[in-house]
Design brief:
By secondary structure, the chain is an alpha/beta fold. The chain has helices at 42-49, 75-78, 95-101, 111-116, 119-138, 154-167, 184-199, 212-218, 236-240, 243-250, 255-260; strands at residues 2-13, 16-27, 31-35, 57-62, 65-66, 80-82, 172-176, 204-208, 221-226, 229-234. Among the domains are: 51-79, no CATH class; 88-170 and 199-204, no CATH class. It holds the Pfam family ABC_tran.
Length: 261
């Protein structure tokens, strides 16, 4: 069974059809990438899956069940975690504190039991710490664990954001442009991490990304969109060589995207 299914999903903003009858499914254990020129509808699809927007038509299913009746705050509890294009971390908190926030969906203790610091609260706290330490080791963040986000370089913040999402122990990880603003070396690290997230952690990844080197390196399948419409779906190689995709990219002003075409 597919982990995530979008079934004929449409969303309009006034006269703009941001997402037009889009259907695709993400299989458990795969890395699936959404690509396309600016304004193609990629972020809107992430926001639809995160339940920030309601589709005008169509259905979105996770683990075989429609999520359209769910509120945005319930999505993490289902096992869907995401990162954001513009990093969203608590600036005045440490890396460790930010990662512990990522554990909120697993918290069972109430305010009163936490206040009394009962044995069950203590063991729960220990479990959260262990899960977070695992993520710190995995992403090589030991040197930064007690550092405040506000003082960290951009590249490290991007990694911490990925860590915050991983700390949730999701089934599906949505990565919104994980390589944007990163150097070639940092992007290479992202490629290794995405591979390990899939292989070692067994987490399914849906990614929006402009960097086609990264997309080609890590994706099992790619969906290319333009103006809200599906253009092509297949391996990175198949999609990059699809004449419809080449035509859509040639119309853009982005040099990197043109180079891809
Ligand atoms: N909140 C909104 N209100 C009105 N129009 C919107 C809104 N969000 C997106 N759009 C429009 O919907 C279309 C799809 O935008 P979207 O941000 O999903 O594209 P994208 O593929 O993520 O682009 P980018 O690569 O630049 O992030 C665009 O025409 C955009 O202007």
């Amino acid at each position: 069974m597919s982990l995530l299914e979008l079934d004929n999903v449409t969303l309009r903003f006034g006269g703009v059809v941001a997402v037009n009858k889009v259907s695709f499914s993400v299989e458990e254990g795969e890395v699936f990438a959404l690509v396309g020129p600016n304004g193609a509808g990629k972020s809107t699809i992430f926001n639809l899956i995160s339940r920030i927007y309601d589709p005008a038509e169509g259905d979105i299913r996770f683990d075989g069940k429609s999520i359209l009746s769910r509120q945005p705050h319930e999505i993490a509890a289902l096992g869907i975690a995401r990162t954001f294009q513009n990093i969203e971390l608590f600036e005045q908190a440490t890396v460790l504190q930010n990662l512990l926030v990522g554990r909120h969906r697993h918290r069972r203790s109430s305010f009163v039991t936490e206040l009394l610091f009962t044995p069950s609260v203590r063991s729960e706290e220990r479990r959260h710490r262990e899960a977070v330490e695992k993520v710190i080791d995995f992403l090589d963040l030991q040197a930064y664990r007690e550092k405040y986000i506000a003082g960290l370089p951009y590249g490290v913040r991007k990694v911490v954001e990925m860590g915050r999402a991983l700390a949730l122990e999701p089934k599906l990880l949505l990565l919104d442009e994980p390589a944007s603003g990163l150097s070639v070396e940092e992007t290479q690290d992202v490629a290794y991490w995405v591979e390990d997230i899939k292989k070692q952690m067994g987490i399914t990844v849906l990614m929006v990304e402009h960097d086609m080197h990264l997309v080609s390196a890590v994706s099992d399948r790619v969906l290319a969109l333009a103006d809200g419409q599906m253009l092509s779906i297949g391996t990175a190689h198949e999609v990059q060589n699809d004449p419809k995709v080449i035509e859509a990219y040639i119309g853009t002003s982005d040099d990197e995207e043109r180079a891809v075409a």
